[in-house]
Write a structure and sequence with these properties.
single chain; 3-stranded antiparallel beta sheet; 5-stranded mixed beta sheet; binds protoporphyrin IX containing FE; 12 strands; alpha+beta; 382 residues; globular
Length: 382
């Protein structure tokens, strides 16, 4: 998509597309829309995709939206309840878990010699981590993974009636599993997110529906994206042998490699905001309830913000933050965890599998979430 983005940026950083929606493509415009409180994620009315999906869902199931889809004050209240799971001390504590899961997966991959980087490594890693963080017992993780994937794939929009029904069934099953876990945590509490949210629920700080929506958000946000950070990062490294060599030489560059991947080829390419009032934004008249597509993937390639933006350079000093985790009040809550997982995974590949090589062209799906579905690789000679 990147050459296309470059063409869009040349039309100005914010323009009105032929179908009438505003599109922000420059770093500055994207950055500013995300931080401008005159925009939100909820539309008072009007056919924005998210509002429409929400309407359908609420009508069908009585589900409530997660805080990703809510504006203050609900957003503030619910985000605060989930935040303790992602504090600096907690994240430090997750390192050992992430390293252990990484090593286990690579042991198995190494034994096979040829493996699929996505289904054997980049996919299972975040699942294990998020399951542990939520407090999902091991016995349930395979089922969670399966239904989580159905829900995750719907992030790209529901394309058929069949997919719609599969999604309904998956969401219902997910809710039931979370409800059972809540009951279980009341009897056997742990130091995990579901236990903490159950307390909040019992104290009247959130409703059970809000708890379910929060757990669903963490589950989906936790793996549909991180898998692609690891996949996109590995692909960029193998496509740029000098960078791969530099990482093998100095595995501490893994921090920079994860960060550079987020700028160069981010898993979440775009998000949407809605104007809450008629407003003048960067000299353009944006009407109340009009959606603005914020193209995060384009912001990272804007030459006004990054030198040689089309060059993948893991030693790049990021003078400004990329927007891969969005910005403003919806800035990704899991960013520290995602960074940790990306770093540990890329470091481990460089240290443990120095002869890693592509075995067949990777496959990708065309969608809003950018990533590979298959990436056959070999561990090469020992
Ligand atoms: C929000 C990206 C990993 C939890 C977001 C948003 C983006 C994003 C772009 C904001 C969307 C918007 O502004 O409309 C990513 C990427 C990840 C990642 C690229 C991995 C590389 C994670 C992980 C978790 C997580 C591991 C948790 C386990 C969340 C939550 C929100 C969020 C809870 C909602 C924040 C809010 O609305 O206040 N993420 N994410 N994310 N992310 Fe992530």
């Amino acid at each position: 998509p990147y050459p296309h983005y470059a063409r869009l940026r040349s039309q100005g950083g914010l323009y009105r597309s032929s179908i009438g929606i505003w599109v922000a493509t420059s770093y500055q415009h994207c950055h500013d829309v995300l931080r401008d409180r005159r925009f939100g994620v909820q539309a008072a009315a009007g056919p924005t995709p998210r509002a429409f999906e929400r309407f359908m869902r609420e009508r069908e199931t009585g589900d409530v939206p997660s805080f990703l889809e809510l504006d203050p004050p609900e957003h503030t209240r619910l985000r605060k309840l989930a935040r303790p799971a992602f504090g600096p001390a907690k994240i430090k504590g997750y390192r050992a878990l992430v390293e252990k899961a990484t090593m286990d997966l690579l042991d198995r991959a190494q034994a096979k010699g040829r493996f699929d980087l996505i289904s054997d490594f980049a996919g299972p890693l975040p699942i294990r981590v998020i399951s542990d963080l939520l407090g999902i017992p091991d016995a349930n993780t395979t089922r969670f993974l399966h239904i989580g994937q159905i829900v995750g794939q719907s992030l790209d929009g529901v394309r058929s009636v069949r997919q719609f029904h599969a999604l309904r069934a998956a969401e219902t099953e997910l809710d039931q599993m979370f409800r059972k876990l809540v009951e279980h945590k009341r009897i056997e509490p742990g130091d995990d997110v579901i236990t903490h949210l159950t307390h909040a629920c019992d104290n009247g700080e959130m409703t059970i529906e809000e708890l379910l929506a929060t757990c669903g958000l963490l589950l989906i946000a936790g793996f549909e994206t991180t898998v692609n950070l690891i996949g996109n990062g590995t692909l960029a490294l193998l496509d740029n042998p000098a960078q791969w060599a530099a990482l093998k030489e100095n595995p501490d560059l893994a921090v920079g490699a994860a960060e550079e991947t987020l700028r160069y080829d981010p898993p979440v390419q775009a998000t949407v905001r809605v104007a809450h009032q008629d407003l003048d934004f960067a000299g353009k008249p944006v009407g109340r309830n009009e959606p603005v597509l914020v193209v995060l993937g384009s912001a990272g390639r804007d030459p006004q913000a990054f030198d040689n933006p089309d060059v993948f350079d893991i030693t790049r000093i990021h003078e400004r933050d990329h927007l891969a985790f969005s910005g403003g009040i919806h800035f990704c809550l899991g960013a520290p965890l995602a960074r940790l997982e990306g770093e540990v995974a890329l470091r481990a590949l460089a240290e443990r599998l120095p002869h890693l090589a592509s075995a067949a062209p990777p496959e990708r799906r065309a969608s809003g979430i950018r990533g590979l579905t298959r990436f056959p690789v070999t561990t090469g000679r020992k």
